Inverse folding.
């Protein structure tokens, strides 16, 4: 394992110290692992809290700021944060209008956020959870834990954050978050494994000429392992999977996301393939995001997330945002 | 069995989880996300700290298990934090303030732990989870007690049923948790949660047998 670390045990806290030093717009409680906007909650504004295992940066801490999240709780690498963290974050961002929990659908995240919501409601803070489950790689059935939450989380945090910034109430913010989730689908492909610092070796082995199709953001396997094909065919495989589940016509918001170890030149090449495919199937890429937004440590690969826009969603996507990882219009 | 026995159980469980840290993580790497041993070991290390650091050390079996559960929930994260934490909390609650716990009370506490885990995680037997070690173990334990087995024998039955339950997960297809995404590819691997549960119950049997 080659990593720029001091010791596997201190990766998360030392990185948080770096985040604190780099971003004065954030208030970072390193000991309790809670990132909030500096300056405290705005009275009357719905608070947005998200969280999940570390190793997916910039998700979630990089999305804390004006127009997006109010707080993020990073867990250990690839491990859900604990209820105490989530409760602290919820208390810290409660401006009296309630708090939205943006939860990716993993058993650990769901259970811990559920416990935190109970603790918060015991204190009289209204909490509504929205569970993100956009990954079409895994079957959504009684026989699995349901679809995983991946790229749509970025869209939900941006769009629901924009609506909360406008002063909408908790029910409306939760409704738009659910709407974005329902209108979004993702699919990921890995070319190499990631290495969890505490484990010290690759999570899975992948041959030199192989790709894992349908990879999850923790290196968990997806649909199948196959020979690595040209980018055009990988894009088609991913988008076929998405299109089998959701029509891709009309105005679309499309993210081509790097898994952490993919050069930007390859992501742009992949975005071009994705755009051509979608246009050939009646879609129009009205808005896009190309880069590393929800990563899996140093994994090479990409994921594509497609959201069917409405006028309102487009307006909220375009609204000003000012966070370490997304910034425009302000 | 008094508080000393329960403290010895937790210390022994922490030791056996630490000793099997890499093994549990390897099992998890095969069908999950390669962190089960790392997370549980981190949690039990925190539990030992909490038991020692408490200004007023927990004095009853129930209090010891409650501190254990609360600490696991606060320190582990993932799915195992809430699930193992809830198991210990429910068991602790079931024991109440009793200073001394007999086998039927211990059996009832383990039943409460199982109920808590199933309520939270919604897993049933056969789903390839920790329930596949915990459920047969509690069932065999209460049956042995009802049939008049000696305490030593009943505790051995508890530990053996848990281990057998863990081994039986090898042939199961996972229906809950991250392993469920593998579908049929999850068959052929032992479930890490069932294995760690069997280790913890084995530590209980050992501590109770030694402390009686």
């Amino acid at each position: 394992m080659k990593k720029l670390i001091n010791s596997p045990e201190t990766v998360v806290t030392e990185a948080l110290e770096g985040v604190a030093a780099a971003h004065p717009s954030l208030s970072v409680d390193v000991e309790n692992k809670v990132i909030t906007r500096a300056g405290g909650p705005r009275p009357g504004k719905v608070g947005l809290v998200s969280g999940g295992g570390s190793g997916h940066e910039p998700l979630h801490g990089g999305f804390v700021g004006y127009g997006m999240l109010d707080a993020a709780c990073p867990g250990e690498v690839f491990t859900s944060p604990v209820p105490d963290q989530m409760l602290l974050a919820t208390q810290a961002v409660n401006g009296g209008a309630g708090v939205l929990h943006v939860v990716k659908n993993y058993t650990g995240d769901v259970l811990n956020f559920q416990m935190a919501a109970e603790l918060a409601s015991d204190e009289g803070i209204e909490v509504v959870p929205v569970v993100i489950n956009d990954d079409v790689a895994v079957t959504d059935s009684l026989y699995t834990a349901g679809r995983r939450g991946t790229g749509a989380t970025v869209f939900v945090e941006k769009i629901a954050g924009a609506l909360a910034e406008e002063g909408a109430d908790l029910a409306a913010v939760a409704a738009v978050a659910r709407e974005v989730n329902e209108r979004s689908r993702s699919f990921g492909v890995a070319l190499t494994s990631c290495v969890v610092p505490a484990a010290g070796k690759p999570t899975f082995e992948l041959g030199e000429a192989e790709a894992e199709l349908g990879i999850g953001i923790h290196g968990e396997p997806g649909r199948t392992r196959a020979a690595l094909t040209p980018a055009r065919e990988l894009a088609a495989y991913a988008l076929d999977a998405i299109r089998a589940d959701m029509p891709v016509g009309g105005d679309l918001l499309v993210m081509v996301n790097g898994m952490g170890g993919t050069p930007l030149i390859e992501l742009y090449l992949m975005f071009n393939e994705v755009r051509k495919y979608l246009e050939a199937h009646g879609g129009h890429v009205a808005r896009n995001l190309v880069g590393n937004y929800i990563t899996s440590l140093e994994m090479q690969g990409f994921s594509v997330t497609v959201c069917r826009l409405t006028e309102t969603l487009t307006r909220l996507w375009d609204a000003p945002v000012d966070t370490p990882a997304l910034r425009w219009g302000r | 069995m008094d508080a000393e026995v329960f403290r010895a159980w937790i210390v022994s469980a922490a030791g056996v989880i630490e000793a099997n840290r890499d093994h549990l993580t390897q099992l998890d790497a095969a069908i999950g996300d390669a962190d089960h041993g790392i997370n549980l070991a981190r949690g039990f290390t925190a539990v030992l700290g909490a038991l020692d650091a408490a200004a007023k050390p927990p004095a009853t079996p129930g209090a010891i298990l409650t501190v254990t559960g609360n600490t696991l929930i606060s320190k582990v994260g993932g799915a195992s934090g809430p699930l193992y934490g809830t198991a210990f909390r429910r068991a602790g609650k079931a024991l109440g303030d009793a200073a001394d716990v007999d086998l039927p009370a211990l059996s009832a506490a383990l039943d409460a732990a199982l109920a808590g885990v199933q309520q939270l995680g919604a897993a049933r037997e056969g789903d390839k989870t920790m329930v596949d070690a915990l459920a047969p173990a509690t069932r065999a334990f209460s049956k042995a007690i009802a049939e008049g087995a000696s305490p030593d024998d009943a505790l051995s039955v508890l530990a053996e049923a848990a281990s057998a339950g863990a081994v039986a997960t090898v042939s199961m297809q996972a229906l809950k948790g991250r392993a469920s995404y593998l579908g049929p590819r999850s068959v052929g691997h032992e479930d890490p949660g069932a294995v760690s549960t069997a280790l913890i119950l084995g530590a209980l049997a050992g501590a109770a047998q030694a402390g009686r």
